[in-house]
Write a structure and sequence with these properties.
The complex is a heterotrimer of chains A (about 550), B (about 110) and C (about 500). With about 550 residues, chain A is mainly alpha-helical. Chain A folds into 2 domains: about 5-495, no CATH class; about 500-540, no CATH class. Chain A has helices spanning about 5-20, 25-35, 40-45, 70-90, 100-115, 120-140, 145-175, 185-190, 195-210, 220-225, 230-250, 260-280, 285-310, 315-340, 350-360, 370-375, 385-415, 420-445, 450-455, 455-480, 490-495, 500-515, 520-540, and strands at about 50-55, 60-65. Chain A has a two-stranded antiparallel sheet with strand order 1-2. The longest helix of chain B has 30 residues, at about 65-90. Chain B starts with a helix and ends in a 19-residue tail after the last helix. Chain C has a domain at about 280-500. The chains are: A mainly alpha (about 550), B mainly alpha (about 110), C mainly alpha (about 500). Chains in contact: A-B, A-C, B-C. At the A-C interface, helix 6, helix 7, helix 22 and helix 23 of A face helix 6, helix 8, helix 12, helix 18 and helix 19 of C.
């Protein structure tokens, strides 16, 4: 049976829901429909494979296609969107502006699912922009001073990212005839083209900004925590994956490119440690999680970099596998923060224990899905320093997650609720279960290893010692807790914000210049000088 | 001896220079309008020079620039009329210069 | 020395209709009584749109320019009218924008029933028709002097529109506009005189055959381009534009920003591609582009710092005009066989069209917002979304096009310019396009952010806006967005009638 209509429905259903909001009756109820919006995406990920459909014929060539990498991330993202939608439909009910929130939600959803299934460059840019710009509405929703600052920084950097990516795309396409090539055709042309280096640089910067590579990560610890809980979950779980899929799709992974690969790997590992170091100084659990996302995305970038430098086959699939694991775990952790906040001290241990399991899964605790993700990607790093650093980053993750659980405990102690709403708990449990089970199901399909190898003594040992080191470090950190410096959220951005007076001065200077230029004698003399200049240029230069 | 073409040309240049000076540097709008007329006249003489050179090429006198000058004079006349009308309204409303005064921050009308 | 002869084509008489129809409308207003101005305009506007569409259909069907030679007199004595793909595109654009503006203006410029006749409605409708006649003449003329007359007509129709409300600031703005435009005209006229002196013709096709690379031509072109830049308000010659466009009533601002400043640019295009000796001068092209870059960056920052919505939009106009001037070096350096087959040329023209639609919609939306709230201070726009949601949506969609985000005409235009800049290694131009987009997004979001905020508790709506006016504005914005679905290639239609040129 032909399931390709599901791909169209993946984008069409949420958009249709947005359009239906024109009618006030639907607008009033749109929140409760949110869980249904990603259903076609989920079905497409399950049933549809390999086909590509052209929505608009040449010369527009809007094309949708789903490959294994896309399907993996599409399925995980749809699941999280659905669960978070269920969570939002309960937790946001009755809040002022919830209708507006739902519209931004649906637009972001469309864009973020779209990036996994579009196959041509223009559509990719379109859905990518939709995802990053519509997410602004989610970040800015609370309308507090903190969220206004976060949304401002988010918007500025998102636009910068758009510009970088657009420029990269133009360089990618400039050698191609016709306006809108398929992504894989354009990328296949890239190696050896005269604009290869600047194009790769721009794409790494642009998509790296979205995945939060240092130092372009500054928006993430600001933006992710200020959104409402379900929005944080999708921002940190899914939206950053738009950057990952961008790197996967647009880097020529099949062709070995040692320089760029090494650069990306170093940047990724740097980010992985940086996220941990700044993360452990944070106080709010959501901020700690945001820094953990920075760190984990660093690992994904390092995986891609390692693959790029050797041109190892299967890099894309492995990176996507790792990203899928992070997507589900991080989504579950963020939703869990909300659950803990709503659960009284009496029942909180029923939530904290699964949360601990999820958290340490992120660090690759043996027998968890995280260990599988680490196990699958490890061979890409080879045997040298890079492999050691990658393993060590797992220790960092364990440290950060232990810190997170400590902060979560504090949050639980402050909680005034009793039992969280059953729908909320269900949404959380669904994602948590999926994050622990799905990787086991997928693992045999995407690697050549047997599952039994992952539970061998050697594998268990390799997975255990970093976690142990991380826990020891966490104990040590708890000891010296008082003397740990408190780095403000967004770290480097605070330094950049010191430049604000300078920017304001520049603005004032420009205003003054404008006043001078707009005085009559000045403008008319400039006009005469321009006439002379043009005449001279036309006459004396060739 | 300078030929009449050169004389006309120099004449045009002089008028243009005076006109530009007034238009650029005189603060009073009415002077600017008059200066514009001088500038216009200079340009029309330039067309006259072009016609004269056409005559040098063997024609009696080139009629096209003359037609253009006539049209141009009409246009300049219309421009002067519009400018003076605006200026009158401006003076009636209490202003007399081109440089805008500082905007009133309390002004509530859409600007 | 005989210039190229024009042969009148079938259907050429429509060109005369396009120019004369608005004039007939003006005369009818004077003859039938000023009270009927609005009704007459509503009769003329759709007919004019149909005429423009008919000419466009004719051009598209025949694949060649439509030509009409007045009275059968060939240039240089006679005057030829010629509609190629580019001019007919702009004619349709003008008609569409004017029709939309007419619909939206219906509320603000109706003659009140209790009065015998009111001045400002009569003036508004008469001038709109006069402006239309002038624009069509600019797009169709084939003669530099004729273009001068058309430009002057345009200025004389546009200037009074600025000061319809008769306040002192707007009168000052109008007078500044008029005088500065007049300097520009005189420079242009001097250039025309020099060209006539050198070549004995002002006919475009004739000049194209004759143009040499000599002092007279260089000086003439320098004077003409500078004069036209003053009329197009390119930075740093924008002194008159912000107060004039911000002070005019919204409907008039929309026409001024969307269409009037495009006419001088259109003539620069004509001069550069049809008159100037080929190959064009690289240095002068770079100078034009640098002024464009300065315009984009400087005026975008200025737009970001404005407190008033309409002033912000006016500065944004100057910034967006800058993009148009980027195309000169891009076209020159491209390896396309003719200028109009290059991506840069098409991108520039598309930017012209999409900016016209977007800016008209934006000014009209700002007008409706100001009408509903009673002010246009950006800081106090809270609650606009709850009063005039459709206008705010139109503002947002139009903004999308200005920022160059997909899907919108502005995106495709800027993408084409960016592609051309990349292909020809003009990195400064590419950087300016990207930076300009970021700045544009900042000033548009600044407004949207305020407009979408919840209203204050003492919020009161000053006037209710009829739905059809809001929908018209939204329609214009949607047109700007729909332009984004054109493919990213040079459009054959824009090259019609130019391919045959030497």
């Amino acid at each position: 049976m032909d399931w390709s209509f599901l791909l169209v429905a993946t984008l069409a259903l949420p958009l249709a829901m947005v359009v239906a909001c024109v009618h006030h009756l639907f607008f009033a109820r749109v929140l409760s429909w949110l869980p249904l919006a990603p259903v076609p995406g989920l079905l497409a990920a399950l049933f549809e494979r390999g086909d590509s459909i052209v929505i608009a014929p040449a010369p527009l060539r809007l094309t949708l296609a789903l490959d294994d990498v896309g399907a993996m991330l599409l399925g995980g993202a749809s699941l999280l969107w659905g669960a978070a939608g269920l969570y939002a439909s309960v937790s946001m009910r009755g809040k002022p502006g919830s209708g507006r929130f739902a519209i931004w939600w649906l637009l972001t959803l469309t864009g973020s699912l779209g990036v996994f299934i579009v196959a041509d460059m223009t559509s990719f840019y379109l859905v990518f922009s939709l995802a990053s710009l519509a997410a602004y509405g989610l970040v800015a929703f609370e309308n507090t001073a903190r969220s206004r600052r976060a949304s401002r920084v988010y918007m500025a950097l998102a636009l910068l990212g758009e510009a970088l990516i657009l420029f990269g795309f133009v360089m990618l396409v400039s050698a191609m005839p016709g306006g809108n090539p398929l992504i894989r055709d354009a990328v296949a042309m890239l190696p050896g083209s005269p604009l290869e280096s600047p194009a790769v640089l721009l794409l790494i910067l642009g998509f790296g900004l979205k995945t939060g590579l240092v130092p372009l990560h500054v928006w993430m610890p600001l933006a992710h925590p200020v959104a409402p809980i379900p929005a944080s979950a999708v921002l940190s779980g899914i939206i950053v994956k738009a950057g990952v899929i961008g790197l996967i799709r647009f880097l020529p992974l099949e062709v070995p490119s040692p320089d760029w690969g090494m650069a990306l790997m170093v940047l990724g590992l740097l980010t992985a440690f940086y996220g941990v170091i700044v993360g452990v100084t944070q106080q709010h659990p959501k901020t700690v999680l945001a820094y953990s996302t920075v760190s984990q995305m660093g690992v994904v970038a390092a995986v891609l970099g390692a693959g790029l430098s050797t041109g190892a086959p299967g890099t894309a699939t492995l990176a996507a596998f790792y990203a899928l694991h992070h997507l589900l775990v991080k989504g579950a952790l963020f939703l869990g923060v909300g659950i803990v906040g709503a659960t009284g001290t009496r029942y909180v241990s029923r939530v904290i224990i699964p949360m601990a399991l999820l958290a340490f899964s992120l660090a690759g605790l043996p027998l968890t899905s995280g260990a599988l993700a680490k196990f699958a990607t490890k061979p890409l790093f080879g045997d040298g320093l890079a492999a050691f650093m990658a393993t060590l980053s797992a220790a960092g993750s364990a440290l950060l997650m232990a810190h997170f659980l400590g902060r979560l405990r504090t949050l639980a102690d402050e909680s005034t609720g009793d039992v969280a709403n059953a729908s909320l708990v269900f949404a959380w449990a669904l994602v948590a279960a999926a994050s622990l089970i799905l990787p086991w199901v997928l693992f045999p399909e995407i690697t050549t290893y047997a599952l039994s190898e992952t539970v061998s003594m050697k594998a268990l040992w390799v997975a255990s010692w970093p976690v142990a080191i991380g826990l020891l470090l966490a104990l040590f950190l708890k000891r010296i807790d008082a003397s740990v410096p408190r780095i403000p959220e967004g770290d480097v951005i605070v330094l950049l914000e010191r430049l604000q007076p300078l920017a304001a001065r520049c603005g004032t200077a420009i205003e003054r210049t404008d006043l001078v230029l707009r005085r009559w004698p000045v403008a008319s003399i400039v006009l005469l000088m321009l006439a002379i200049a043009f005449g001279t240029a036309l006459q004396f230069s060739r | 001896m300078i030929g009449s073409t050169t004389l006309y040309g120099l004449c045009a240049t002089g008028l243009v220079a005076i006109g530009l000076y007034g238009l650029v540097l005189h603060p009073s709008p009415l002077r600017k309008v008059i200066a514009f007329n001088l500038l216009g006249s200079g340009t029309f003489i330039l067309f006259g020079v072009a016609a004269q050179r056409g005559a040098a090429a063997g024609l009696l006198a080139d009629p096209v620039p003359q037609a253009m000058v006539i049209t141009g004079i009409v246009v300049a006349f219309a421009a002067t009329a519009v400018a003076v009308a605006l200026l009158l309204r401006l003076v009636e409303s209490g202003g007399s210069t081109l440089e805008p005064s500082a905007p009133d921050p309390q002004d509530d009308r859409p600007s | 020395m005989t210039p190229a002869a024009y042969t009148a084509t079938e259907g050429g008489a429509l060109l005369v209709v396009a120019i004369v129809l608005p004039v007939i409308g003006m005369l009818a207003i004077f003859a039938l009584g000023l009270r009927r101005a609005e009704r007459i305009a509503y009769l003329v506007l759709p007919v004019g749109l149909l005429v423009a569409l008919a000419i466009a259909a004719d051009v598209a069907r025949s694949g060649a320019a439509v030509t009409y030679v007045l009275g059968g007199w060939q240039p240089p004595l006679g005057i030829a009218l010629r509609a190629d793909g580019l001019s007919v595109t702009l004619m349709v654009l003008t008609a569409v924008v004017l029709c939309a503006v007419g619909l939206v203006a219906r509320g603000s410029f109706s003659t009140p029933p209790d009065k015998a006749e009111a001045r400002s409605p009569m003036v508004f409708w008469t001038l709109i028709l006069g402006l239309w006649c002038a624009l069509n003449t600019v797009f169709l003329s084939q003669d530099l002097f004729n273009l001068f007359v058309a430009l002057e007509l345009l200025t004389f129709s546009a200037v009074p529109l600025v000061c319809l409300d008769g306040r002192r600031e707007t009168l000052q703005a109008a007078l500044r506009y008029l005088l500065f435009a007049l300097i520009g005209s005189v420079l242009y006229l001097m250039g025309a005189a020099l060209l006539y002196g050198a070549y004995g013709t002002l006919d475009l096709a004739g000049l194209r055959l004759l143009a040499r690379n000599d002092l007279a031509t260089s000086v003439a072109l320098g004077l003409m381009i500078a004069g036209l830049m003053a009329k197009a308000a390119l930075f740093p010659l924008h002194l008159w534009l912000p107060p004039a466009h911000a002070g005019a009533p919204a409907a008039a601002s929309a026409v001024l920003s969307a269409l009037v400043v495009k006419a001088p640019f259109f003539i620069i295009l004509r001069l550069w591609f049809d008159v100037a000796p080929q190959p064009a001068n690289a240095m002068a092209a770079q100078m034009l582009a640098w002024l464009g870059i300065a315009s984009i960056l400087f005026c975008s920052v200025m737009a970001l710092r404005q407190a008033r919505l309409k002033l912000m939009i006016a500065y944004s106009t100057v910034a967006q005009l800058g993009y148009l001037f980027l195309m000169f070096p891009l076209v020159m350096a491209s390896d396309a066989p003719t200028a109009w087959e290059s991506v840069g040329w098409t991108g520039g023209v598309l930017q012209l069209v999409s900016h016209a639609l977007a800016k008209a919609s934006m000014f009209l939306a700002a007008g409706l917002i100001a009408e509903a709230l009673g002010h246009d201070r950006i800081e106090n726009l809270d609650g606009a979304m709850s009063v005039v949601p459709i206008s705010v949506a139109a503002f947002g969609l139009a903004g999308l096009s200005l920022m160059g985000l997909p899907p919108s005409g502005g995106f495709v235009a800027k993408l084409m310019l960016l592609t051309a800049a990349t292909e020809t290694a003009n990195w400064w131009i590419a950087a300016a396009i990207l930076l300009g987009g970021i700045l544009a997004a900042s000033y548009v979001f600044r407004v949207l952010n305020r407009a979408m905020a919840a209203p204050a508790s003492d919020f009161a709506c000053k006037a209710s806006i009829p739905l059809y006016r809001e929908l018209t504005v939204l329609g214009l914005a949607i047109c700007a967005v729909v332009l984004g679905f054109v493919p990213l290639q040079p459009f054959a239609f824009l090259g019609i009638g130019r391919v045959g040129l030497p």
